[in-house]
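user: At home tonight, take the chain set out below, taking as long as you need, and be ready to discuss the fold:
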Amino acid sequence: MAALAVPLLELARLGVLQGTAEKAPDRHVLSLGWPELERVLPDRGLPRGVIEIASPVEKSVMRGGATTIALSAVRAVHAADPKAWCAWVSEKNAPSLYAPAVAAAGVDLDRLLVVRPEAAALARTVVKVGASGAFDLVVIDALSGLDGKIGKAKTDGAIVIRKLALAAEEKGTTFLVLSNVFASRAAPWPVALRIEVERRPEAIALRVTKDRRGRASSQHVVRLAC
């Protein structure tokens, strides 16, 4: 994978960070090129902001269709803009992406930065990646949560989500946070959209549990995009 595990400091050398401070926010909904899925989403696509995709997790391995949806989003971003970059952030001990499968999903590997920090540094890393403004889409594998440290201060997942929401507002970035549907929290994360997904044979069962208008929906079964 061409952009696998490149340190953030290397982004400047690669030219990815050049001019990012001037990047204008983009308020448009991200179309996934997956009509059957888009029909059941409140905005008929993914809104700019922070989206949580929660799925069943067993032994730190995701069993749902969250990865499938996330790869579709990366593919859509790359297809829409030949200069757009995406990032995929997961802790070092999490299962890694399988490059041939990612490429087969239509993702441009040359424009996908994969960052794998230590678990304790995940929260700090995702905030830095989001604040850089270098990426149209950032996928965050947060199956173990987003609690951690930013600087010397301990922080919880809700604070991290708020920081990402601020970055989304300022930079126009979309954040997909892949989470464990069974994880317990003191309060729900303040995301723009939360969907719960579970993989079925050749399909994904999906339910919207929160959108920007505070609504929830019934469960839908969506066939995998060809």
In short: The mean pLDDT is 84. Residues 10-223 form a domain with the Rossmann fold fold (CATH 3.40.50.300). The radius of gyration is 16 Å.
